[in-house]
């Protein structure tokens, strides 16, 4: 289960600058990777950073929080910590010292921004 007890907040000078949830996915689920054409197999358990955010210009603070979550991941006995960094290059640069490995199995997509001109209000509905 993922809930408030899994949420972390970083305060600096009495102000919240970064926050994140840590989902212990590995508690209940494992990934089994098999190399095609061989008997090679690897079983991993992961944690995932969810619902995270940081104040403008506080990428280094968020990186400190992630460093703490890396320690929590190790304490829980999990193999990997996952976090979506592909759309946050300034933040990702702060984590280079941890040698992040890009995920290549994910399916990603983007939707075009909708153009909103004048909203339709159906007064008959109300």
Question: Can you tag this structure with a few keywords?
Answer:
126 residues; alpha+beta; Aminopeptidase; four-stranded mixed β-sheet; two-stranded antiparallel ribbon; 6 strands; extended
CATH topology, which one?
Aminopeptidase
Proportion of helical residues: 10-25%
**Rounded radius of gyration (Å):** 19 Å
How many H/I helices? 2
What is the first-to-last residue Cα distance? 40 Å
Mean of residue pLDDT? Answer: 89
Number of strands: 6
Can you characterise this structure?
With about 130 residues, the protein is an alpha+beta fold. The protein has a single domain (about 5-100), classed as Aminopeptidase (3-Layer(aba) Sandwich). Helices cover about 20% and strands about 30% of the residues. The protein is built from 2 helices and 6 strands. It has helices at about 60-75, 90-95; strands spanning about 5-10, 15-25, 30-35, 40-45, 45-55, 80. The chain has a 4-stranded mixed beta sheet with strand order 1-2-5-6, with helices on one face. A two-stranded antiparallel sheet has the order 3-4. A hairpin with a 6-residue loop joins β3 and β4 (about 40-45). The mean pLDDT is about 90.
Brief summary:
With 126 residues, this protein is α+β, with helices and mostly antiparallel strands.
